[in-house]
């Protein structure tokens, strides 16, 4: 049963990335590439060469990574001068073939992501207590959500035009948590994709943290997903960031597993 939810959560994640990447400015060099013979996808962002944006999601854990697939992966990253990337592998004994093949090539684990799902049929999101008000952003405000994301994580404003581009994309909703003056201080996004929902892009400005903003935003987005007819919602987070994991589980999500990130250098010789 867990394998079913793991596969489903990755399919939702990949679909969300396809839609998000399609909204990026052309100069960002975004692309999503299918891995032949599998349901896996390679995610590439030339403008942001960190492995968190350049990774391979969904390779079957019971199959070793073969030379031809690795050559295809490294070539796709190399052609945009991306020096390294992640390959995700679910933790657990059923994924040993892929994991062992990466370790045999010298690739090393570098942190992990926890994956969660929430079945929305009959679900009522908890109502967390917070002094912040939550509202849905207007299409013209999507860029502001990008600014909050960048300011929250100490990034240059690269996400401002990218988030602004989502205002023309189908299915996307953006929400703000606002202070007493009505100023947005936290954000989170929701993608409604038929029966599936994906939650992401959660961020809170440093001065507004520890006020329950992300719990509020989780609850509102889950309610919106259920109202839109979604049956399941998925989300992922860095497994080492305990407060994010706590917020997700308090919102009603349940864990389906953890994926280790294996750091792979592009200059590896197959």
From TrEMBL:
<dbReference type="InterPro" id="IPR016181">
    <property type="entry name" value="Acyl_CoA_acyltransferase"/>
</dbReference>
<protein>
    <recommendedName>
        <fullName>N-acetyltransferase domain-containing protein</fullName>
    </recommendedName>
</protein>
<dbReference type="GO" id="GO:0016747">
    <property type="term" value="F:acyltransferase activity, transferring groups other than amino-acyl groups"/>
</dbReference>
<dbReference type="InterPro" id="IPR000182">
    <property type="entry name" value="GNAT_dom"/>
</dbReference>
<feature type="domain" description="N-acetyltransferase">
    <location>
        <begin position="132"/>
        <end position="270"/>
    </location>
</feature>
């Amino acid at each position: 049963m867990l394998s079913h939810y793991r596969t489903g959560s990755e399919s939702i994640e990949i679909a969300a990335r396809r839609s998000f990447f399609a909204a990026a400015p052309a100069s960002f060099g975004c692309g999503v590439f299918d891995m032949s013979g599998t349901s896996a996808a390679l995610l590439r962002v030339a403008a942001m060469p960190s492995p968190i944006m350049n990774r391979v999601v969904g390779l079957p854990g019971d199959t070793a990574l073969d030379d031809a697939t690795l050559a295809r992966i490294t070539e796709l990253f190399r052609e945009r001068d991306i020096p390294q990337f992640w390959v995700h592998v679910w933790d657990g004994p059923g994924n040993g073939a892929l994991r062992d093949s990466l370790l045999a090539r010298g690739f090393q684990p570098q942190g992990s992501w926890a994956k969660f799902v929430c079945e929305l049929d009959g679900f009522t999101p908890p109502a967390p207590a917070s002094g912040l008000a939550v509202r849905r952003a207007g299409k013209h405000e999507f860029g502001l959500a990008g600014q909050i994301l960048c300011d929250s994580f100490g990034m240059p404003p690269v996400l401002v035009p990218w988030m602004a581009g989502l205002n023309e994309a189908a299915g996307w909703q953006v929400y703000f948590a606002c202070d007493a003056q009505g100023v947005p201080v936290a954000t989170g996004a929701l993608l409604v994709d038929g029966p599936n929902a994906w939650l992401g892009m959660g961020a809170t400005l440093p001065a507004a943290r520890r006020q329950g903003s992300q719990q509020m935003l989780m609850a509102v987005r889950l309610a919106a997903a259920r109202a839109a007819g979604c049956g399941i919602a998925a989300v992922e987070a860095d497994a080492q960031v305990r407060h994010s994991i706590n917020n997700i589980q308090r919102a009603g999500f349940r864990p389906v597993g953890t994926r280790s990130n294996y750091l792979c250098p592009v200059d590896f010789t197959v």
